[in-house]
């Protein structure tokens, strides 16, 4: 079965999707899965906190906004996409609403820009 098993006060429970509210150990400290991940630009040491900031960093690394047929993100207004050049298959897709920016997006950016970005837990 998928999920996280916890043992608290003599009872074993399976939590399907632990949230930070539920993520506490018996001694009251937060469990390791409740740490928040952030994308860090290595050269400046700053946490990326907006799509505008991310776009500035990516443009400086040679990435360009991707417009498919004149429409942003192949007609999907909920996505912002970047590509290195029309000849390459490298494509980064991030949600246009930065609140929906998840660790999968962060790791996609890190894999394609290993020396310039890191994912850290805070």
From TrEMBL:
It comes from the Eukaryota. InterPro entries: FPF1. One of its GO terms (biological process) is regulation of flower development. Belongs to the FPF1 family. PANTHER family: FLOWERING-PROMOTING FACTOR 1-LIKE PROTEIN 1 (PTHR33433). This is Flowering-promoting factor 1-like protein 1.
